């Protein structure tokens, strides 16, 4: 599902300390059309060799990752779908423009084919054959016949609860526990959906494991229902048994911290290992945390470092921060304060509160970077705004000496 969704939904921004979430719109539909047009030309789903349920893929796509054109695909056709999946929504064509361009291709190739058939009884065996006579041609022609009124509602996902569920889950996978409820409520507000609406929908749509998982989240954090950790644990377990990687990771977390069940660090470790094997960035990070702290296994700092590095490469903020901490303190690797600074800075700009705090410390102490109290104060404030008490305490100390 991630591969088909406008990557701008994963690009949250802040304005006056209020998180702004991008809402899916008609330009988002155009992005999805572009992906579908590429899929038609390739005969396979996009990024079929990558896990589609992981935040890492979403972050890579946001940063510009796209599938490559299939050899021998007409240049005009390639331009249509690459224009559609432009990272900047305003640079994408309209539905009318897409239809017009597809019409041009069909008209031009019909003329070319007619000319070639007059001089040769055999039709050239190239990509144009597939475009005109195969599945691609039929889909393009059907697409061309559709009215704009038919296209927009069919592609629109703004009110599609299935897509919303998947987007919320991806958002939560890269969010700290203490902020998960806030992020869900914030997402719903930005999409003009009440928690009552989506909760009712979840109750009536339990045939999808992600919907069951999100219902577990609602019970876990008390969204539209009283906190019920035992119910949350049961729901996480149900979807974990179905192979849902988010359920597997969350079940491990419940065993790790005794949420809705008794603490069982060995079981937590096993579940994190299972999620990590499935490529889930949060599972990989949690497994690294187990190795760092001897949870369900022996302490192995080198293994922890490797896992944090994997999680960081998948775009997980906690992974980026912890990797920076490893470089700063020499955990599982050699001390490299410059590398630590760069990782803290990267995670800080993406909103990781502990990275913001550690970056502020480096600016205050003049480590690696020139001492800059304005920058130090700025990042302490950013961290404190997210509830980091250490950052707030440091701000209070600085104010005493003003």
Automatic annotation (TrEMBL):
**Which top-level group of life is the source organism from?**
Eukaryota
- InterPro entries in the record: Kinase-like_dom_sf, Mitotic_Regulator, Prot_kinase_dom, Sel1-like, Ser-Thr/Tyr_kinase_cat_dom, TPR-like_helical_dom_sf
What residues does the Protein kinase domain cover?
A: 1-106
Q: What Gene Ontology terms describe what this protein does at the molecular function level?
A: ATP binding; protein kinase activity
Q: What is this protein called?
A: Skt5p
Organism of provenance: Rhizophagus irregularis (strain DAOM 197198w)
